[in-house]
């Protein structure tokens, strides 16, 4: 069910909860009307949006109470281009109500990627979409949406597909004027104009198709694991950060430590402290509500270069990962992504998949347990952690692999 959101200081409303689909070209009013009738007798409001990459989409919904389409803009069309694709976001609206948006190729909203509901209703949709490939996942609030909604310039308001916008009347008047011109002897001029318009439309369609092909080729080439630090480089950087880590601080003892990659030149270090005779005034970082724990976040320098492009087929990657764990006597939990849903032929699916790996190192990985992890092509560590209570060192990783029967595209020069 579509809803209207409003934000302080912003004129008009913003519609969420539309059903989106791809269009090969700008749809006519008659095409919008036919599409609305196909979707259901109560569906009549629509939005038409063209992304910066030239991808055209239409979104439909039932009329929303106490609102007029001319006063609404589709929020999904506004926010789609404001993060690097592909991305999905969940935004808290009020109470237990959330908005889910999912954007992929050409910064377009995918089918089912504009929904309003509770987390119990939205999480199954998000899990199905995760099977399409790698995503950047974002969480936010109405404040975040308000900031993004300010960039609504260039996004058209919604319209009633069954009655048409006011400008359709101007088209009718223009048609009448054209007839009068023909009667006055302007037939030749009119034909030349029509031919020029047809040629311009054909050129636009060709340009859009070329842009879509180029975007898809770039998406296939831009494999995400190359931008993530190689495991040994990441472990080296974490070791330097750990060597500088203090174990106690004025009555507060180190309880937990996490090392994560932030950028190619920085790590994020999250430290948890437990009170051991100290007082709240001396707590490092942010104090917990019970006053006995504190959390500190800091940045540490790093220098990560692009990593190897090599990956294995999924079956071989699993075998290599288990071999590494077994040879080093490590515990390992390897989780496959959800199975792919039948493709609609329009939503692109990455040729690779991503497995989640939880590794029990038992000791700092740079002191031996991490040795040999580089032999597993496509594995990328995303966190190294330490828990003081049980003296446990752990790692989380992503294992990238090609879907069975699919080969990695050759890199273009």
UniProtKB/TrEMBL annotation:
Protein name: Type IV pilus biosynthesis protein pilO homolog
Native organism taxonomy: Bacteria, Pseudomonadati, Pseudomonadota, Betaproteobacteria, Burkholderiales
Pfam families per UniProt: PAP_PilO
Organism annotation: Cupriavidus pinatubonensis
Highest taxon above the source species: Bacteria
């Amino acid at each position: 069910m579509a809803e209207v959101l409003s934000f302080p200081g912003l004129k008009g409303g913003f519609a969420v909860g539309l059903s989106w689909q791809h269009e090969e070209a700008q749809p006519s009013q008659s095409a919008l009307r036919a599409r609305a009738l196909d979707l259901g007798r109560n569906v009549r409001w629509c939005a038409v949006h063209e992304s910066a990459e030239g991808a055209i989409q239409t979104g439909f919904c039932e009329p929303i109470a106490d609102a007029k389409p001319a006063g609404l803009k589709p929020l999904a069309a506004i926010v789609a281009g404001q993060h690097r694709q592909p991305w999905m976001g969940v935004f808290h609206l009020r109470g237990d109500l959330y908005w889910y948006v999912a954007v992929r190729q050409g910064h377009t909203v995918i089918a089912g990627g504009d929904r309003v509901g509770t987390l119990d209703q939205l999480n199954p949709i998000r899990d199905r979409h995760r099977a399409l490939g790698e995503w950047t996942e974002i969480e936010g609030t109405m404040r975040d949406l308000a900031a993004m909604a300010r960039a609504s310039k260039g996004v058209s308001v919604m319209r009633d597909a069954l009655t048409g916008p006011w400008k359709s009347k101007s088209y009718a008047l223009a048609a009448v004027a054209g007839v009068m011109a023909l009667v006055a002897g302007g037939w030749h001029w009119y034909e030349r104009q029509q031919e020029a318009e047809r040629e311009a439309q054909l050129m636009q369609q060709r340009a859009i198709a070329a842009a879509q092909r180029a975007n898809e080729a770039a998406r296939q080439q831009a494999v995400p694991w190359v931008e993530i630090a190689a495991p040994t480089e990441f472990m080296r950087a974490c070791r330097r950060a750990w060597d500088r880590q203090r174990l106690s601080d004025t009555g507060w003892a180190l309880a937990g430590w996490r090392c994560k990659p932030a950028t190619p030149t920085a790590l994020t270090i999250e430290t948890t402290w437990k009170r051991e005779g100290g007082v709240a005034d001396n707590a490092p970082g942010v104090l917990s509500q019970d006053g006995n724990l504190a959390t500190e976040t800091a940045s540490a320098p790093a220098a990560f270069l692009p990593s190897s492009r090599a990956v294995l087929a999924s079956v071989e990657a699993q075998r290599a990962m288990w071999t590494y764990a077994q040879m080093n006597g490590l515990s390992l939990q390897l989780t496959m992504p959800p199975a792919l849903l039948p493709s609609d032929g329009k939503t692109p699916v990455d040729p690779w998949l991503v497995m989640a790996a939880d590794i029990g190192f038992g000791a700092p990985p740079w002191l031996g347990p991490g040795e040999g992890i580089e032999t597993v092509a496509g594995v990328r560590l995303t966190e190294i952690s330490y828990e003081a209570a049980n003296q446990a060192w752990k790692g989380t990783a992503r294992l990238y692999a090609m879907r069975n029967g699919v080969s990695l595209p050759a890199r273009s020069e």
